[in-house]
C-alpha cells in the first residue's frame, strides 16, 4: 500500500516537472496566443525560483504553494493553451528530458534578477513609507 502511494507521488511529480517544461516550450511557441503566454512565464519563474510565496519552513502552510497553488496554476495554464500546441510541447519536453540537456543558466539568472527586482521595489516602497511617517 505504501509503495503504491510513493509510486503515485513520484509519477505525479514527474508529470508536474514535464508539464512545467512543456509550458515553457509553449510560451516560446509562436502558435501560442498572447493571452496564454502570461501565466506560463509566471509559473515557470515561480516553480524554478528558490524563493517561495510561503516559506517551506512554516509548518503545513509552507508546502501549500507546492502542493495546491502551483498545480492549480499549471492546470489553468494548460487549459488556456490550445490542446494541439500543448500536446506538441509535451512531446518536445519528453524528448528534452530523455536527452538530458545541460541546465540553462540564462533562465536561472533571469529568474534571480526577476526576484531581486521585486525585492528591490518592495524595499524602496518600505523606505519611502517609513520616511513619510517620520
Gap from first CA to last CA: 62 Å
Mean pLDDT: 83
What does the radius of gyration come to?
Answer: 18 Å
Runs in which pLDDT lies below 50 for 5 or more consecutive residues are none
Shape: globular
Q: Give a count of the beta strands, DSSP E runs of length 2 or more.
A: 0
Assess the beta-strand content as a share of residues: under 5%
Task: Please count the helical segments.
Answer: 5
State the domain count. 2
Kindly state the percentage of residues in helix: over 70%
SSE succession: HHHHH
The description of the largest β-sheet is: none
Structural class: mainly alpha
Descriptive overview:
This protein is an all-alpha fold and 134 residues long. The protein folds into two domains: 100 residues, no CATH class; 32 residues. Helix content is 75%, strand content 0%. The chain has five helices and no strands.
Question: What's a concise summary of this model?
Answer:
With 134 residues, this protein is mainly α. The chain has 2 domains: 2-101, no CATH class; 103-134. Helices cover 75% and strands 0% of the residues.
Topology:
Elements: H1 2-28, H2 38-48, H3 64-80, H4 83-99, H5 105-133
Keywords:
mainly alpha; 5 helices; 134 residues; 2 domains
Amino acid at each position: 500500500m505504501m509503495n503504491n502511494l510513493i509510486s503515485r507521488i513520484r509519477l505525479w511529480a514527474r508529470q508536474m516537472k514535464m508539464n512545467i517544461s512543456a509550458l515553457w516550450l509553449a510560451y516560446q511557441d509562436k502558435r501560442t496566443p498572447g493571452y496564454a503566454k502570461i501565466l506560463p512565464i509566471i509559473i515557470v519563474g515561480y516553480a524554478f525560483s528558490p524563493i517561495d510565496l510561503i516559506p517551506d519552513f512554516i509548518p503545513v502552510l509552507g508546502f501549500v504553494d507546492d502542493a495546491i497553488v502551483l498545480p492549480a496554476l499549471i492546470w489553468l495554464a494548460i487549459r488556456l493553451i490550445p490542446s494541439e500546441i500543448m500536446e506538441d510541447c509535451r512531446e518536445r519536453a519528453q524528448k528534452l528530458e530523455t536527452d538530458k540537456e545541460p541546465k540553462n543558466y540564462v533562465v536561472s539568472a533571469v529568474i534571480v534578477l526577476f526576484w531581486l527586482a521585486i525585492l528591490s521595489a518592495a524595499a524602496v516602497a518600505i523606505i519611502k513609507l517609513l520616511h513619510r511617517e517620520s
